[in-house]
Amino acid sequence: MHLLSTLFLVIQCLHALANVEKTIFTAPEHVPIPRDAAIDNLLLYSLNPARLKIRTYLNASFPSDDKPHGEESWALLEGLRPGQRYELRVCWLATQPTVFRLDTYTMAESFETSGLISSLSTYSYSRRDALAESEVNELVASKYVPSAGADNTSLLFLRIQAAADYFSLNKTLMEIVPPVHVDLILDPYLLNVFPRSLVPTAIYIAIIAFFSWFLADRSNGVERASARKKLL
Ligand SMILES: *[C@@H]1O[C@H](CO)[C@@H](O)[C@H](O)[C@H]1NC(C)=O
Ligand SMILES: *[C@@H]1O[C@H](CO)[C@@H](O)[C@H](O)[C@H]1NC(C)=O
Ligand SMILES: *[C@@H]1O[C@H](CO)[C@@H](O)[C@H](O)[C@H]1NC(C)=O
Does the C-beta of 124 come closer than 6 Å to ligand 2? Predict the structure, then answer.
């Protein structure tokens, strides 16, 4: 038990050292998705079992009245297993202080909530106008291809809000916020309790913890033995 709690503590620290924001969610039930061009035309990056990590730039802005949490970007989370727990992380450099907010919505929520659908289409349109060639390649590479046969997976929309969180004497930086370089990571939980990508770290820490416990116990034993000798 002691070992486990140490383990969790260390992992929490690892999380805290990097600039990470995350959201934890359970994949919704499968609903048939019209696999026409409508979703593809949104030009959103897709995170899915074949593509668990995407490195990209996201626009950010200082909080304003109409965007209190900064600039909004969208992505798709596809090929999810209904009922499976996942973590979605955004990681960024400490040199670009930003506050991220992550929310996931079902397709129905995204399309039927006026604030969401307008944000989604604004993002999609500005992407259409400004997609660099490298992004087009990334977009094609990240495209989710459902496996043949019954597609029983589910899909969520991810909204990322990015607010700049710095003060600079440089006027340019206070007026134009540079896009933030980020990693977006989709991480399924193992047995719905533990992020899969952290398993190697956890095993490593567990081995070290075990050996230090083992050595401590042995040296205790040696001390006890020499104490016994003195008594004799
Ligand atoms: C989806 O269907 C496939 C094939 O029928 C099956 O192997 C798999 O376990 C199913 N997955 C879920 C999450 O139900
Ligand atoms: C990001 O910001 C740039 C510069 O303001 C703009 O041209 C581009 O359309 C924006 N991209 C998105 C997806 O909003
Ligand atoms: C202000 O920041 C911009 C963007 O990082 C940079 O190009 C420019 O040189 C800076 N200006 C000054 C006066 O430091």
Answer: no
